[in-house]
Every structure is written in C-alpha cells, then in structure tokens.
Amino acid sequence: MIKTIAKKLSVFVLALSLLLMSAVQFSADSYLVSKDGFYYLIENSEAVIYGYDYNNRTTDIVVPNTISDYPVTKIAPRAFSNNTKLTSISFTDAMSLKSIGKYAFYACSSIEEIIIPGWLNSIGEFAFQDCTSLKNVSIYSNVSVIPEQAFGNCISLEKINIPSTVKSIGSYAFYNCSALTELTLSKNITDIANGAFYNCPNLTLYGYYDTVAESYAEQNNIPFVHLDKKVISGDVNLDGKIDINDVTLLQRYIAGESVLTDDAVKAADFNKDRIIDIIDATAIQTFIAHGQN
C-alpha cells in the first residue's frame, strides 16, 4: 500500500515538474534585451540567446552574429520553445554560433524549413521536436550526433540530409515522421538507437552493405536500398561469379601487369590477411576446384 502511494506521488511530482518547465520559460526581467528583441546574457565574453520578444516584431527571425559586440555562440535550452508564431529562423548571419540547446525550438509549430550551417557543431536533445509544419531540414555542419528526439513527431518532415560526419542517431530521433520517405545514411554511422525511426511507415533507408544502417533496417523491417555493389570474396573482376578469370586477373596484378579498383582489391584478399599475394590466387583456385562457387 505504501509503495503504491509512493509510486503515485512520484508520478505526480514528475508530471508537475514537466508542466512547470513547459509553462515557465524565464523571467524576462532577468535578461538583457537587444535592439532586435532577443533576450540574452553575456557568459564568458559570449552572448547566449535565451528568448525573443514577439511584441510588435517580425516572426521571421535572423539570429545575429553579435549582440552588443559579443559573439552569439549559443541558443539556450528552451529559448524559443512553444512559440507558435515563429514562422522562420535563419542562422546564416550567426557565424559564431556553435550550439542549439535542448528543446530550443520545441513545438514551434509554424516553422517549415531549417538550415543548419557549417559552423554549428551541436544540436541538443528534443531541439525541434513537435515542429509539426517542418518540411525540410538541411544540415551542412560537422555534427557527430543526431540526438534523442531531435526531430521527433515532425509529422510534415519530407526531406533531411544526414551528413557523413554523423556517427550516432539517438533514440526516437525521428519518431512519428510519417511524411519522411527517403533517408541516406553513411558508412560512418556506428550506432542507431532503439526507436530512432519508430512509426515512420513510409520510410526507405539508403546506405551501404555491411553497415550499421543495413543491420538496423533489417532488424526493424525498414526497406533498404544499397548504394554500392556487394563485393564477393574471390570475385576479382567483379562480374558476380568466381572463376578462372579472377585467378588470371589476380596473377597479373601480383606481377604488376594490371591495376585493381578498391573493391577488386577487397575481393582479391581471399584469406583476409590484408596482403594480396600468390597465396590468395592459390586459395581461389582451390575454391574453384572444389566446386564451391
């Protein structure tokens, strides 16, 4: 009985905390206000944006490179969250901007496009969650992580590019992106968390053989299109079968009479010792002789 009451109380406290977090952004009186209407503070000789004064101002916002001669380096957590009037946000002038905080644009339901410039290197969890009108996202930066629920429930999202610098995609990063149909994932991705593409019924992933992306798609029944050819060990001439022609080409390569592509070199290393030599040619001949092709 006591455990049940304690459990209910903890759930209530958690719900109340979340409600207060979403309802109370900050006290405007505690912040400086720029001439363009940004609430900000100076931290370590850098300007951090904490919000925006929408009264009698534009809803198409351009983040500046400096405020009061201080470089703008951060968008603070929840800075613009729940602002349904915000229709566009541009970072193209903010060349000192390095990070977008957690929930920074959470539930900004009127934004249709986001461009992440090359100099921005960090996107916080839930940063664009519930941006239900967001259709296009272009990421040109060197971000290494698409974090937890960063684009969750962006139900209108049709197009987003994931740069090759990304190594990890967080849990539910794209959950319920029902309009998303195609997404290309590079060979550099080493981790895709559970539920990253949960309830994306129209999604097809594009990627490469023997990658985390391929394994994730297979495990989660997501259609997967290969962007490269399957390299068969021993198929030195890359014609889809292993025969004497492969042995001949490999012998010519070893003798310095032929050049192989990267995929052909990978296929030629039949014994996987990272050395292309006569041992590989002999192993392929033995493979053919035993009729294992």
Automatic annotation (TrEMBL):
Superkingdom in the source lineage: Bacteria
InterPro entries listed in its UniProt record: Dockerin_1_rpt (IPR002105), Dockerin_dom (IPR016134), Dockerin_dom_sf (IPR036439), LRR_5 (IPR026906), LRR_dom_sf (IPR032675), Surface_bspA-like (IPR053139)
Record Pfam families: Dockerin_1 (PF00404), LRR_5 (PF13306)
Keywords assigned: Signal
Signal peptide range: 1-28
Domain Dockerin: 229-293
Keyword field contains Transcription regulation: no
Protein name from the UniProt record: Dockerin domain-containing protein
Native source species: Ruminococcus bromii
